[in-house]
Amino acid sequence: MRAIALNFAAGGRNRGLLSAFVGLWALLGFMAVFGSSDELSAKAPAKPQVHIVEIHHFQFSPAVVEARPGDTITWKNLDAAPHTATAKQWDSAKLNHSQSWSLKVTDKGTFEYICTYHPAMKGKVVVK
Amino acid sequence: MIRNLTRVAAAALLASATISAPAMADEGPTDMQIAHIAYTAGNLDIRYAHLALAKSSNPEVRKFAELMIQDHAAVNDLAVGLLTKLGASPEDNATSQQLIADANAKLNAMAQMQGAEFDRAYAANELGYHQFVNKTVETAFIPAVDNKEFKDLLGQALEIFKVHEKHAEHMVRVLK
Q1: How far apart are the C-alpha atoms of B89 and B33, rounded to whole Å?
Q2: Less crowded by CB within 10 Å, the N or C end of chain B?
Q3: Rounded-to-integer distance, Cα A79 and Cα A57, Å
Q4: Does the pLDDT value for residue B130 go beyond 50?
Q5: pLDDT tens-digit profile of A48-99?
Q6: Which value does ipTM take for this structure?
Q7: Looking at beta carbons, which residues of chain B come within 8 Å of A79?
Q8: Mean pLDDT of chain B
Q9: CA distance B105 to B47
Q10: Do A81 and B78 touch (CB under 8 A)?
């Protein structure tokens, strides 16, 4: 402590070294309490994402979407023919050409869906 | 020369089909004549579908008919939108008139049928109609059309009509 006081009194270059030392000490203390920045991001809740499913050429693309609760899935119909995205739990109703429909998923699970007009068109939403 | 050949091919294909086209011009159809023929063909399938909904109680037939009304109306709406954007008007022609005359005859004949007989006739007609239209659109109309946007729309329509053709094949098998 005395040495520090002496160095401080010397001023100039020593004052800069002191500031760096104090800063490093504070950073180490913060990390000891709260963890590293990587750990911080891992612990933080994931930011909700928007997943786009294009309906084109009579297919859902991608056919399988993996999402987390809170994410939003948006279906866009690029075909000339109307389509739907219909599961037991939800239904887009008719989507004409260039129309979109969004669903915010809240429950975990696997949700298989089809186009009710063209049942050969199949897709899946996996929420985990 | 190539364009003339494709137009002749279009005329020949239409003339050789079950739906005759006696008055197709020697040069083959123009873009706007093709637009008129395609629009007319879509509307006629909608008329067939309305007849099916009026006469049939078969769920398979009714579901197919509802799909035909929806999809052909959607394609025709897009066609009207494109033509409006292009400031163009479809041009009536002898082939369109022949399509209408042939369809009227078929509609009148099918209107006399009842029950399973009607269902089988409707299914068979839908299969034949889509086979004919798809072949014409794919091998004659799309190669002959000049306007890129119109060509793209015909491509999208063909994709839909091919799905209908497969669906009609299934319906014919189920109703046998």
Answers
A1: 9
A2: N
A3: 6
A4: yes
A5: 999 999 999 999 999 999 999 999 999 999 999 999 999 999 999 999 999 9
A6: 0.77
A7: 156, 159-160
A8: 88
A9: 12
A10: no
Locate the chain B residue with the closest alpha carbon to A94: B70
Q: B163–A79: do the CB atoms touch at under 8 Å?
A: no
- The one-letter code for the residue type at B46 is I
For chain A, what's the residue count? 128
Q: Which chain A residues are within 8 Å of B71, Cβ to Cβ?
A: 81-82, 117
Torsion sign, CA atoms B35, B41, B44, B48: negative
Q: What is the pTM of this model?
A: 0.75
Q: According to DSSP H, which parts of B137-147 are helical?
A: 142-144
- CB spacing of A117 vs B163 below 8 angstroms: no
Give yes or no for a contact between B91 and B32, defined as CB atoms under 8 angstroms apart: yes
- A117 contacts B74? CB cut-off 8 A: no
Q: Give the ranges where chain B is alpha helix by DSSP (H).
A: 2-16, 31-55, 59-86, 94-111, 115-136, 142-144, 148-175
CB contact at 8 A, A53 and A59: no
Residue A89, min C-alpha distance to chain B (Å): 23
Q: pLDDT value at position B108?
A: 98
The pLDDT mean for chain A works out to: 79
Residue with tokens 């008719």: A94
